[in-house]
Amino acid sequence: MQKSSRKYILIFLVLVFLAFNFLLFKTDYENSHRKFTFAMLDVGQGDALFIESPTGTQILIDSGPPGKILGQLAKVMPPFDRSLDAIILSHPDQDHIGGLVDVLKNYKVGKVFDPGIADDSKTYQNLEDEIKKQNIPNILARRGMRLDMGAGTFIDILFPDRDVYTWETNKGSVVAKLSYGKTTIMLTGDAPIETEKIILSENSSSQLKSDILKVGHHGSHNSSSLGFIKAISPKYSLISVGKDNKYGHPHQDVLDILLGINSKILRTDELGTIIMKLNGDMLEWKYER
């Protein structure tokens, strides 16, 4: 009887060993065959964007409301990968930073970029405390900064172009343009029309034109002016929004503007997490509930 038990234990341990080695092999293979990845994570009524360059550099932009982000990161990051090179905080509203403390407690984060807006909410104070506790460099995001993620992947900060410490949070949102080779993605946070006007005044249409648009403020009509959308002229427009949300996002007039320029609209409330991968010029879309 004892010999039989030892035999089964030995078989079990061998199977565990083989499974563990398979996972390691799978992770190594995936790491050596990385593509450029951009993902709009399904965090409900909020924003969370994940970017990975072919070199493996990873940046998270926002984290959605509390309790959503960790499960979503597991969809786009290998199980043994517990680090992020940087986090960009677009602005300190709860639906954009609510999950960041969880991220900081579960992942090693290299740097944090933020617009420098004053906020006295408990969520933001807890986030500031955690950043200081871990001694993570906290850098002001400003126009003209370029984040080099390797392999021809760059994030260029377009806004803020000034001190926004006393600004209303949405108006001071970080706006940036992500580039990988010839593919470009405009990242807008919750920037309203007033901020869009500043960006339009400082950049030509050729500088703003992008293949993909992260639609501002979850498709609210306070953002996405016709002039701004025409300057960007996106082939695809991605909207991060909660199903049946109380704000009525996305607003129909914004959808009409996007449809009017023949932009294909992809929404997290309809598709779940939206994952875009690029291998050279080959574009792949994947959706995960």
Could you explain the architecture of this structure?
Strands 6-5-4-3-2-1-14-15 form an 8-stranded mixed sheet, covered by helices on one side. The protein has a 7-stranded mixed sheet with strand order 7-8-9-10-11-12-13. It has 10 helices and 15 strands. Helix 4 (100-106) packs parallel to helix 5. The protein is an alpha/beta fold and 289 residues long. The protein has helices at residues 2-32, 69-76, 94-97, 100-106, 122-133, 193-202, 205-208, 226-232, 252-260, 268-271, and strands spanning 36-40, 49-52, 58-61, 83-88, 108-114, 138-140, 146-150, 153-159, 175-180, 183-187, 212-214, 236-239, 264-267, 273-279, 282-288. Helix 2 (69-76) links the parallel strand 3 and strand 4. Mean pLDDT is 92; it is low at 23-32. The protein is globular. It starts with a helix and ends with a strand.
Summed over residues and divided by their number, the pLDDT gives a mean of 92
Number of helices: 10
Largest sheet descriptor: 8 strands, mixed
> Strand percentage, roughly?
25-35%
- Number of beta strands: 15
How much helix, percentage-wise, in residues? 25-40%
- What form results from the Cα inertia axes? globular
